[in-house]
Specification:
By secondary structure, the chain is an alpha+beta fold. It has 6 helices and 5 strands; from the N terminus they run αβαβαβαββαα. It folds into 2 domains: 124 residues, Alpha-Beta Plaits (2-Layer Sandwich), CATH 3.30.70.1730; 45 residues. A 5-stranded antiparallel β-sheet has the order 2-3-1-4-5, sandwiched between helices. It is elongated, with a radius of gyration of 27 Å.
Length: 172
């Protein structure tokens, strides 16, 4: 990697740290290419990304930022999961780490705040933005269907009464 490629990598990392709401730092030692591909695909499915980083370049990218203390985590084979969704990257990384012990979560950043392993785990337990939207839509639709059901019952009863009177008149 020549100097210009390194500069490009540092600027890409700075951009990732600036644009992402959540960044999860992981060790990936021992992951096969297939497992790494699977992890990246799962990240892409939820709008997140996963990037293997060079520690020295990542430390340069973090230097001079509010989260420069995160550079302490970049030792050994590290990668970062990142997303603009507050919980997507943390949720996928935590679920993948449960099924594959080769991926180890070290910590991360949420909205400019450095978090430890426990904090990332708690973040991963929260519902995603899409799950929250779905539950809100469900809560909004439930009263509407109940109201429609309640309004239909009197209308059917009125129709039965009218039908009964009509049947009486025809009989007379």
């Amino acid at each position: 990697m020549d100097r210009s490629q390194k500069e490009d990598m540092v600027s890409q990392l700075k951009q990732i740290f600036a644009d992402s709401v959540t960044v999860v730092v992981t060790h990936y030692s021992g992951l096969t290419v297939a497992e790494m591909t699977d992890l990246r695909e799962k990240m892409r499915e939820v709008g997140a990304g996963y990037k293997v980083t060079k520690n020295r370049l990542t430390r340069l990218a973090l230097d001079g930022t509010d989260i420069k203390d995160l550079s302490e985590l970049f030792v050994g084979p590290t990668g970062i999961a990142f997303s603009t969704d507050p919980v997507a990257a943390a949720k996928v990384a935590a679920n993948f780490a449960k099924t594959n012990e080769k991926l180890i979560i070290l910590g991360g950043v949420y909205d400019g705040q450095i978090m430890d392993i426990e904090g990332i785990g708690n973040l991963a337990k929260l519902p995603s933005l899409d799950e929250l939207r779905g539950s809100i839509v469900g809560m909004i639709q439930t009263p509407a269907t109940r109201i429609a059901g309640i309004l239909q019952v009197p209308a059917t009863q009125v129709a039965r009464v009218i039908g009964a009177y009509q049947g009486k008149d025809e009989a007379a």
